[in-house]
Amino acid sequence: MRKRLLLTLMSLFLVLSIPSGAEEHVMAKHVTGTKVEHVEKVDTAQAVSMNKKIALENCTTILTSEVESYIESKVGRKVRTYDISKHIVKESLDNDIDICFVLAQAEIETAFGTTGIGKSRRSMYGVYITFKSHNHSTSYYIDLLKRNYLGTKKTIHHLMKNFVNLNGHRYSSDKGYEKKLKDKYLEIKSKTKIFKLQNECDKYKT
Questions:
Q1: Rounded to an integer, what distance in angstroms lies between the CA atom of residue 51 and that of residue 56?
Q2: Can you give the pLDDT at residue 32?
Q3: Mean pLDDT of the chain
C-alpha cells in the first residue's frame, strides 16, 4: 500500500507541475520503439481539463488509502476494507457529503458492518433493511441522507445538533446520539487527513 501511495503522490506532483498558461500547448505523443511520433496538439483548455481529471483520480486514490487505513485501525480486516473505502469515497465525492461524517456514523452504528445488523443484514448505518452488500447499504444511506434528512437547506452540522428528518422524526432513539456522532466526527477530522484530502479532491471536480 505504501508503494502504491508513493507512486500516486509522485504522479500527482507531475500532473500539477505541468504548465497551463494561455499561450502554451501540450503535445500528445505516440511512442513506437525508439521513434516518437507527434500525433496532435491539444489546446490549453483540453490540457487543463485532462490535468484536472488525472489529478482528481490521483487525489481520490490517496483519499481512499487514508479511509482504508482508518477503518483498518478500528476493525482490522474483518471486512473488505478497500472495497468499502473506495465506495464510500466515490459516493461521498459524487454527492458532496462529508466523508468524516459518513465514517463516524458507520462506526458508531455497526463498527463498519462488523456488529449487529451490519453483520447480519450488511447494513452499516443502522438502517433496518437487508442489503446485498455493505456497498449497497452505503449508496442507500447517502441517498436517504440527502433526500430525507438534508434536503436543500440543512447540513451535516444541523444533524449533529438534532438528527431528525424533514418530517421531524429522529434517526435514533438514543438521546445522546448527536453527541456521540459529533465526538466521533471531530475525532476522525482531527486525527486523520481525510477532511483535508476531500477538500483537495473537490478542487479538481468539474
A1: 9
A2: 43
A3: 85
Do β-strands 35-42 and 26-32 pair in parallel, antiparallel, or remain unpaired? antiparallel
Alpha helices in the chain, H assignment, sequence order:
2-16, 44-75, 81-95, 99-110, 116-120, 134-144, 156-159, 177-191, 194-202
What pLDDT is attached to residue 22? 39
How far is residue 194's CA from residue 97's CA, in Å, rounded to a whole number? Answer: 13
Low-confidence ranges of the chain (pLDDT < 50): 2-3, 6-7, 9-10, 13-39
pLDDT score, position 1: 55
Report the SS3 class of residue 43: coil
Give the pTM: 0.80
Q: Which residue matches cell numbers 444541523?
A: 158
Q: How large is the greatest C-alpha to C-alpha distance in the chain, in angstroms?
A: 70
Q: How far is CA 198 from the centre of its chain?
A: 7
Q: Please, what's the b/e burial string for 113-138 (b: 16 or more CB within 10 A of its CB; e: otherwise)?
A: bbeebbbebbbbbbbeeebeebbbbb
Residues 92 and 58: their CA atoms lie apart, in Å, by: 16
Q: What is the pLDDT of residue 26?
A: 38
One-letter amino acid of 165 = N
